[in-house]
UniProtKB/TrEMBL annotation:
Catalysed reactions listed for this entry: GTP + H2O = GDP + phosphate + H(+)
GO annotation, cellular component aspect: mitochondrial inner membrane; mitochondrial matrix
Record-given protein name: Guf1 protein
Cleavable signal peptide: 1-16
GO biological process, one term: translation
Gene3D superfamilies linked to this entry: 3.30.70.240, Elongation factor 4, C-terminal domain, Elongation Factor G (Translational Gtpase), domain 3, P-loop containing nucleotide triphosphate hydrolases, Translation factors
Residues holding GTP: 73-77, 127-130
Topology within the bilayer: Peripheral membrane protein
Species annotation: Dacryopinax primogenitus (strain DJM 731) (Brown rot fungus)
PROSITE patterns for the chain: G_TR_1, G_TR_2
Amino acid sequence: MLFCTALILPVCDARGQGGMSDRTGTVAKISGANQQMLDKLKVERERGITVKAQTVSMLHRQNDKTFLLNLIDTPGHVDFSWEVARSLAACQGALLLIDASQGVQAQTISVGMLALEKNITIIPVLNKIDLPAADPDRVAAQIESTFGIGADEILTASAKTGVGVDKILRAIVDRIPPPTGDVDAELKALLFDSSYDRYRGVISLLSIQSGRIRKGEKIFLHHTQKKYDVVDIGVLHPEETPTGMLQAGQVGYLACNMKNSNEAQIGDTVFRVGESKHDPLPGFQPTKAMVFAGVYPIDSNDFPKLEESIKRLTLTDRSVTIQRESSTALGQGCRLGFLGTLHMDVFRQRLEDEYDQQILITYPTVPFKIIDNKGKEVIISNPSDFPDPADFSGKIQEVQEPMVKATIILPHEYLGGMMELCSNHRAENIEHSYLDTSGDQPRVLMTTRMPLAEIVTDFFDLLKKTTSGFASFDYEDIGYQRSDMVRINFLLNGRPIDSLSIVVHRSNALHVGRVWTKKLREVVPKQQFEVAIQAAIGKQVLARETLSAFRKDVTAGLYGGHYERKLKVLEKQKAGKKLMKRIGNIELPQEAFYDMLRTNKPSNKA
């Protein structure tokens, strides 16, 4: 049996995953509306996107030979690029699926270039050619100009009707080189993914680079140097199918009674106990959180349950970072790090769907690099840890914020509005070129440098509004850059609300302060005394709103008598209000926090 491992990069394509699995007999032919075989999560089926890479092995008969094809279905969105990066380490080739009706998107360029950097074979496939809006010739020209791939190498197919699927299977066998590992050599396997089973512990996904591994053998992992007994091993076909052995060229699962998920480090190398050569395989870059947010339970008594749910969910999403934090207003919670805003939203929905959690998420923020006068660098992800203005003159040398290289593809008619939008969000070095000039609406490729902090606010919403939903957007991290960032504190009668502190660029601080104080005035409950709502940078007040006092009629129960009797009660109320204003502690209820964070963002003027 011959082996071949390929990667599916489904860019802007979420329909008909059963095409190749139907043709190879891996699953029975699918009927009905839902044909998302490898999209197993509820959030994937509801949104029509892939958020978790899935592996499947299938047998294909060609030229009187049987080939074992190991395919990994990966996400296409930038927030899940780490899923693509670690899957590339286990593959020899990639299928680049492109919607024939939408053409090359920003995500297409991102994942395509990532595959080219790994020097693996790319087979471009134009899917959905059965749609009335499909234009394969135009899209093929875009691929040729973007990636330098000739039109004769581009395949066309329809996973829904089955047209062209046989050509894809033949191209995988003919174009993608088979694995080169020696079956008789010592065991060396790459751990590229993992999941958790409550009965068997951690289930590891392995790509066997050399040698073979059998059930009952003893293995150890290079990173932890811990030893385990193999209790179950097999391939995903598409469900777990025990085989008793995996050998060089295969991709499969392994269960070894590993109870702690931290022991299964993504990118680690698996060896057999007793063999001599223990040089680890070259790994890949670990995940780096780019967006942080605080997660709190609606009911503070539910925190232990929420924390346990987060830990269980991160067993299947290893790219999320966890750190405990507490707030005087919201109680105990966790500060989580995500790869992007979509990743954060998907994680929130999975917590609600799979673990029935009712949560409150603070607005997203990005990590900032603080450099002191001695040159020491500290990464800060929580706005409450950001230094005060007084520290910049004596302790802090500079603040740096993360920058990204943004790629936007849009119709020509929206170019002017898009350039203005990028400029309003502090974009630099805006450049553009034409992907094609055919048709009534030529498509433009824009590239620019932008602060990541501008993207995680309202940029996506404004981008869709500016381009009527026809633009695609992608970005990649390009490091840190010096910037004039400040922390805005929001105060009620002089007392700061720690959970609402935000870090923004100084040029946008006044606008954000005014917007947020007006919103706070709407959600803060009225008191029996006047409440001052302020936005401030250190001791400098940027904006102020005043919440008028709630009037209580203390004379309502007084009937008859002299006027001085009522006046005495009113004077007593007046003195009480002064005392309450001086020592009164205003608590912002969680309902107000929920309303504030759900409907408001630290937006720019646009």
